[in-house]
Each structure stands twice: as structure tokens, then as C-alpha cells.
Design a protein that fits this description.
30% helix; single chain
Length: 261
């Protein structure tokens, strides 16, 4: 794995400032999902949002990139208020979200929708990401013919084909077996560290403490009812690749468990 530059002091790619989100239930009662959330994603870093189910992690991701509005607080892109959807962000989903009637290649091309690219450039981008994620021989296959790990490779390729600066991953490995999840984590970090991939930063939403520690430079730890920041833990000084049996990793994992207990 080649080394990425250290996180930049430039304005963050994306940030939330004092964000609160309130939903109304069917009876008209208000429920606070997120309260006073502050964090940012700087260039050249992996940030994990970690917390138990129901703490608002996925909601926070959607607010950060403009898919849904905050009830209060500010959302920023490169130090300016975000208007609409973040133009430099792409999302990889937990359930793969592939179109079953499209081939692998056609599913990946969906990631170019609305992005300027002539036919030749589009073909080259699709070919490049197919090779990068290890699916060069499966371009004409349909999702039903793929394993879970291969489906998620398609999802990653679809997100990367548009060359986003920020790759957002919403519990992307939770539907995979342990060995496949480990290989997919390695793949994502290898792609991110490759000079051929222009994506600068990754936002990882996860409920797995080990996954957050193995992959991230910083971990935003959320508590629940309502979702709020318990701590932001910096672990970027820990060299990659990381092993769960290393003392530094185990100590950090134990610290995370303490924050969530």
C-alpha cells in the first residue's frame, strides 16, 4: 500500500457544524435523531462514523452530502455553505443497490450519469475501474451471477467511475462474510492510496469498532438517543496495514468499546 499525503490544512471537503435533525412521527410528535453534531473531513484522510444501530449514522451521512436537509446547524463544502447535493461525493451502499436488469458494465456507467464525458472517455473510465476492482472479466455478467463480494466491487466501481473527491461508504461490508469483508477493506484502502485514483478522502459509516480502527485516520464516535458525538479519536499516526492482534490496535479498540459502553 503506497502512502497517502498527510491530511491537508486546506478547507475541509465536507463539514457539519452544530447539526441537529428532528423527524416527525405519524402522530406528529417530534423525535430528535441527531443533536449538535460537529466534525469535518479533510483532504487525504479516512474518517469513520461509528456508533450503535439507531444512533443516526446513515442520516448524518445523507445530511453531510446534501441528500436530506438538517433541521438546524450548517453543512459546508470546502468552507462554503453546501447548496444542494455535494458535487464531489459518491456513495457505496450496504445492500449493493445494483439494477438487476443491467450488466456489470451498465451498472457502473450509471455512475457517470450527469457527468460530462464523451463516449470514448466514458469507455476508458469504465474499463479502468473494472480493472481496478478486479472485475475485468465480468463486464457482461448480471448481478444475479455475482457473489456478494463481487456485487460490492461493482458498487465501488460505480462510485469511483465519476472520480469523486469524497467516497462515502454506508456500512458497505456488513452484508459480507468475514473473509470477504477483510479483502474488501484492503481493496478500498489500496484504491484510495493509489495515485491513479483521484478520490482524496473516504467517509466510512460503520457499527464495527474493529473496522473503524483498521481503516480510519479519525473516528467520530456517536452515542444514541439522540445521536451525539461522544469523542473524535485520532489514530492516523498508526501505520497501515494494521493488524487486530497488534497492541496499539487492541488498545484503541478497547478505548472505543469504553466510549460506547
Amino acid at each position: 500500500m503506497s502512502a497517502r499525503p498527510v491530511p491537508s490544512s486546506a478547507p475541509p471537503i465536507a463539514a457539519v457544524r452544530g447539526v441537529t435533525k428532528v423527524f416527525q412521527d405519524e402522530g406528529g410528535r417530534s423525535r430528535v435523531i441527531l443533536q449538535g453534531i460537529d466534525f469535518e473531513i479533510r483532504p487525504n484522510e479516512v474518517v469513520a462514523v461509528l456508533g450503535p444501530s439507531g444512533c443516526g449514522k446513515s442520516t448524518l451521512l445523507r445530511i453531510l452530502i446534501g441528500l436530506i436537509p438538517a433541521s438546524s446547524g450548517a453543512v459546508e463544502q470546502h468552507g462554503r455553505p453546501l447548496a444542494g447535493i455535494h458535487p464531489g461525493a459518491a456513495v457505496v451502499f450496504q445492500n449493493f443497490a445494483l439494477f438487476p436488469w443491467l450488466t456489470v458494465e451498465e451498472n457502473i456507467r450509471v455512475g457517470l450519469t450527469g457527468r460530462a464525458a464523451d463516449a470514448a472517455a466514458a469507455d476508458e473510465r469504465v474499463k479502468g475501474v473494472l480493472t481496478a476492482v478486479g472485475l475485468a472479466g465480468h463486464a457482461r455478467a448480471y448481478p444475479k451471477e455475482l457473489s456478494g463480494g463481487m456485487k460490492q466491487r461493482v458498487g465501488i466501481a460505480r462510485a469511483l467511475v465519476g472520480r469523486p473527491e469524497l467516497l462515502c461508504m454506508d456500512e458497505p461490508f456488513s452484508a459480507l462474510d468475514v473473509l470477504t469483508a477483510r479483502s474488501m477493506r484492503d481493496l478500498v484502502l489500496d484504491l484510495w492510496s493509489s495515485p491513479e485514483v483521484p478520490t482524496k478522502s473516504i467517509l466510512l459509516v460503520t457499527h464495527s469498532i474493529e473496522e473503524a480502527v483498521l481503516m480510519s485516520d479519525r473516528v467520530v464516535v456517536l452515542r444514541t438517543n439522540p445521536g451525539r458525538v461522544a469523542d473524535i479519536v485520532s489514530i492516523g499516526s498508526m501505520p497501515r496495514p494494521r493488524r487486530l492482534d497488534s497492541p496499539a490496535v487492541r488498545e484503541t479498540v478497547d478505548r472505543m468499546y469504553g466510549l460506547l459502553a
